[in-house]
Amino acid sequence: MASVLTVVVGAYALTRGDYTLSIAEVLRTLSGQGTLITYDVVVNNRLPRVLTGIGVGAAFAMSGAIFQRLARNPLVSPDLIGINAGAALAAVLIITVIGSGWIPLGALAGSLLSAVSVYLLAYRNGVSGNRLVLVGVGVTAIVGSLTAYLLTLADIYTAKSASMWLAGSLAGRSWTHVVLIGVTLAVGIPAAVVVERQLRLLELGDDLARALGGRVESARGVLIALGVGLAALATATAGPIGFVALVAPQLARRLVPRPGLVVPGAIGALLVVVSDLLARTVVAPTVLPVGVVTAFLGAPYLLYLLTRARPI
Amino acid sequence: MKRAAGLVAVLAVVVVLSLCVGDRWIGPGEVYRALTDFTGSDSDRVVRYLRLPRTVAGLLVGAALGLSGAVMQGVTRNPLADPGILGVSAGAAVAVVAAIGLFGIHSLSGYVWFAMGGALVATVAVYLVGAVGGTTPVKLALAGAAISALLGSVTSAATLLDLSTLNEYRFWVVGSLSLADHGIVAQAVPFVAFGIVLALVLGRSLNQLALGDDLAQALGTRVLLIRVLAGLAVVVLAGTATAIAGPIGFLGLAVPQVARLVVGPDQRRILPWSMLLAPVVLLLADIVGRVVARPAELQVGIVTALIGAPLFIALVRRRRTAAL
What we know:
Chain A: Pfam families: FecCD (PF01032). Chain A: It is a multi-pass membrane protein. The structure holds two protein chains of two kinds. Chain A has helices at 2-15, 23-30, 36-70, 83-98, 103-122, 129-153, 156-167, 175-202, 206-211, 216-238, 244-255, 262-281, 290-307. Chain A is mainly α. The two termini of chain A are 30 Å apart. Chain B is an all-alpha fold. Chain B is 77% helix and 0% strand. Chains A and B meet through α6, α7 and α13 of A and α5, α6, α7 and α14 of B.
């Protein structure tokens, strides 16, 4: 259902922009019968953007689902444990000091570095969900203040492009980005299907999982690595798009009894594609970064979740 | 008593240092002459028009942040509460951005009301969200994070749509004392004074709240009234501090913790200690920021985050998770 909606919204997104096309024109172009202009608009410009949005939405959402179930806490998401902040610092460092090349690679390194720091700092006879979140808040503050400092050193146009990246943006995404996130999912989705069984075992509690023959510590390590990898690569591709990882798994749980990891992914993809369409069209011709819209749609939902009388 | 006298002495030393240290060292004797017998020489002007207002601003902002953190931790019975974490600063920040961007207001007297309004709305929202179904520290922290993200998204949109707002905002958001002048300081004094009096008066009631709502009520404490007054104190103090110096994180969190370690759980001692200790830390961070990156300056908000966040992490590691 979510996938069908994603395809529909995605197709609609291909028609909208500075140069509005009909759906028939888009289809003709995709089958190789368009003009040079429509080919450029659809195939070089809008299609990679939409596909990148679908990919990063799915990756963020799957990562969020893994962390929430691992911590047995509906509010844990990769943004809270330093992945975004680390990527942001690395990317802003590259944009302000070096120029714009190598952003995805640098962001990937930054997010992995800060995620590992948070994990190690939170580790004390194992890692509890709450401690992971609170240590993440602390590390995020340190890294975030360095990022803010870098922004004050840059000239205003550099600061603006860095700010765009910081908000999470799909602007100017090319087929390179599609390939990056596509490979991520090509590895990530089968891996998620395989480790989902481990996740269900861990949800029974460490003692029961061990009694049933699960290797608890290694299973947890693999799951954290997969969650960090998905979120880090998605951040490297599109910047730190907020709240998708947090919201999509919760929506999935309310729509499907046992959602696994792929259903949240489909919902995340839909959320990002819808948000990006809104980001491009609501205040056109200005294009907002997609992250501004996802936070705007997602934060009220988090607040609603928090008011549910459920111990967390 | 001895320790309190020691703290006051340390604060006095830091204040003198703050007047002496900078781009150029100006000796205490020369500082004294500049303040008592102003001749208009370069160093006299530096002391009187730059370092004096900056130092007084540091005292005001530090006292305000330390006290508001202590009051917030007392009233929520939550050792991890802090105006920065609970979204108060984000509320003030987004309101200031609105003041700059939408209304073209650039003076403290104009946007101090915006900062306080924003702080008020964010505080109430975070507290309400945290209160439904029972307040837990993690829930309050996450409600603060969500409200901050929502407000941050508005701020983000506003600054990206208007380049000149972004330009002012990016320097303001790191938190700095360097823009303070006599006018700003004079305008802020009554607000901070009001907040300080209100906060210090609440000490006894906060002690009773620490016993739990039911017991406090049985002892004759008007719990709701205390909460409202405490909220007012937090909003006035944190809102004014943010208006003067921008959002400065972690001071309001770490300082009351240290105060509690030194003087024990009595709020009547934690509150004044926080009020005196926070300006010590803030002014020290400001002095470090002035000399560490010469000839440029490192903004005080960055220095306090770099010092405060590791403290926070150490605190989180020390506490048993159950206590969170």
